[in-house]
Amino acid sequence: MSSSHFSPAFFVANRQRLRDLANTTAPIVITANGLLQRGADGTYAFAQDANFWYLTGIDEPDVILVMTPAEEYLIVPGRDDNRAAFDGTIDDNLLKNRSGITTIFDVDAGWQKLAKAVQQSPKIATVRAAPSYLENYGMYTNPARRRLLKQLKAIQADVEISDIGKQLVRLRMIKQSAELLAIQSAIDITIATLQEVTQPELLSKYEYEYQLEADISRGFRARGASGHAFEPIVAGGVRACTLHNVANNSALAANELIVLDVGAEVEHYAADITRTVNPGLSTPRQLAVYSAVQDVQHYAAGLLKPGVLLAEYEHQIEHYMGKKLQELGLIKAITHDSVRHYYPHATSHFMGLNVHDAGDYSQPLQPGMILTVEPGIYITEEAIGVRIEDDALITPDGSHLLSDKLSRAAT
Fold first, then answer.
1. Which phi and psi angles does 12 have, rounded to 5°?
2. How far apart are CA 376 and CA 119, in angstroms?
3. Superfamily of structural domain 8-171
4. What strand order describes the sheet that includes 390-395?
5. Could you tell me the pTM of the whole model?
6. Cα 371–182–295 angle (5° rounding)?
7. Residues of each domain in the chain carrying CATH 3.40.350.10
8. Domain 174-401, what fold?
9. By the 8 A CB rule, do 191 and 405 touch?
10. How confident is the model at residue 1 (pLDDT cuts 50, 70, 90)?
């Protein structure tokens, strides 16, 4: 991008808002993510902790932010000549100019200063560390927060750790103007790219899912995005019935529907849009399923407004989807299990710095929140998977689809 949507004032204000909301005299200590090993001495591409970026704008690993009632500073690890030759050096002036934090310490001086603060305070505020392995997702988590807690406990074993994650969630749920601009930019790039690759004369020429994925990747980068906000899903036929099918390596057939679930990333902010397309002519059955999903999405978008509780919203949509599944002859009675057999996911999730962004699902919706609207029907036995997804901004009197410029017409 030629210029940033975010000035240092954005990060300075976020830190002050966190101080005000946390209302604590305890030191606030937030860590960046660390690099993760891919194999041997190679790492995966670095992805910053969203909370740390929200407070600093810094994209370096292993940096630590410390805020006390009297001051704020960064602890920045050094790099020896060998690592600097491969990864580059860290310019303290760039960190200062980006974050608005003027005091930077190296690891030794910084931890000596932080140790004094820990010893003088019975409590430290930070973001809780997740378990090392999340069974329900089948994934390992970044160890940076666990490492930070271990270091703090080494200084003062009985120090009380206070979790300020909920306060950060409350801040991040309501998008500010700079965030809205970045998200809209990501959405616009996604729209333009999908419009390009789904032109009938081009769509019919793709032979494999990965060819579509490659052109989407090219389109995102060519239009100014840093890349994908999440692993892209390009899934034809029965493969679209696996919700997160990211292999994208199968042959495409002219009679198969293709689910394209993708989103560009602009300055860490995500778009998340899904369209279901056909490189050939859709059958009456495919069109009927598509029409049902389209109808459910229209119904869901009409429900979104301030004050809505998402649990009630999802229950209403489940019942409405049940009626559509009955019309399609897929179920007889509308029950939770019968509907979820063909519609196994939620309709909406928060979106922002993470594609599945921080959000308190027990709180009523408020203006400034952004959520996806993404119903789907998946009929494995018929090799039909349909999902339509748009991104909605909650407004004072309802909601607005930020991705409404992208056609949802059946192909």
1. -60, -45
2. 54
3. Creatinase/prolidase N-terminal domain (3.40.350.10)
4. 370-373, 390-395, 398-401
5. 0.97
6. 30
7. 8-171
8. Creatine Amidinohydrolase (3.90.230)
9. yes
10. very low
